[in-house]
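Reading group handout, session on sequence-to-structure problems. Before we discuss, look at one worked example. The prompt was deliberately terse, the way you'd type it at a terminal:

> structure Glucose-1-phosphate adenylyltransferase

The input record follows.
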Amino acid sequence: MTSNTVAMLLAGGKGTRLGELTKDIAKPAVPFGGKYRIIDFTMSNLANSGISTVGVLVQYSPLMLNKHIGIGKPWGLDRQYGGVSVLSPHSNREGSAWFSGTADAIVKNLHFIDQYEPDDLIVLSGDHIYQMDYTKMLEFHQANDADATISAIEVPWEDASRFGILNTNEDMSIYEFDEKPEEPKNNMASMGVYTFKWKTIRPYLLEDEENEDSDHDFGKDIIPMMLSDEKRLFAYNFKGYWKDVGTIKSYWEANMDLLKDDFQTLLMSKEWPTYSNEENRPPEYIGETSEITDSLISPGSFIEGKIDNSILFIGVETGKGSIIKDSIILPDAVIGEGVRLERVIVTSGVEVPDGAEILAKDEEPIVISHDTLNDYLPKGGNHNG
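And the output record:
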């Protein structure tokens, strides 16, 4: 089923809406869930689905992503044939280098795909949190003799206008694709997970590349072209947790979801493990003055104070008398003594001084970075955000 399938993982997203979290790294490389990075979930899906030929397309600030993926050993992708290949933008004869769209990223790497002569191509995003068996989607795709299959999930009706909506017949065949419609006909949203017959999609990609008016995007250009040609397109109805962590709020929510009983299998499932390229850190130290409730504490941490409904990443230090609630503390951050934090995200390596008080008053979490810390620590006292 998966032996003649190539997966292309789009991991070059700049993630501008994540602000300080993506200042120096690509969105898929942002730390998540205590000891992981966002891309680990898609990489683990591939490993658990038995898909062993993977091209990872990087672009924006790729250093950390390249280091994290390496030769793919944590995901069993360190192989002589197939395995994982990190594919960077490169100049062609016309001098164009940067990927100008999702479809363009694939076209610029046709040589990588062609060498494997696949039956099917899977195109994935590297910045979503979910667990999905791609084998089941492939079975659905092949059983319907589909030219393209798009994974879809039901979203709340009030959110449907923010997504590409798939309008389908009873057999789940797609007759219309609406990109962020003002009045959606249903709430079946595209997840940005595509399976294509390679012999069908390849000429569409080449034709689109020659169109100067195209955005070279699967959702905006390729899928509508295939529909207009009456190709066989189907929606695969995914049942499960899925989150696009494209904003500060959604990133905070997805991390907090890991603390809920309903979603703990995202990290703790023995049947569908989440793998990562972990750093070798000593066990966490929990001091005698500490009080921890409903939280994740990662290796290498040195914990004093009260931690409630929060996620502390590797190497975090918290001082005596500190109170941390509903917050995310990224790797190697240091929280001083007597600090109070509520609904905040402290970025990697930041040192919050003794006595600081930073509390978010609305739904949008506060992000504390090296550049923003002083905004919340005015001279003469603490600040209530």
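Points for discussion. First: DSSP finds nine helices and 28 strands in the chain. Second: The two ends are 53 Å apart (CA to CA).
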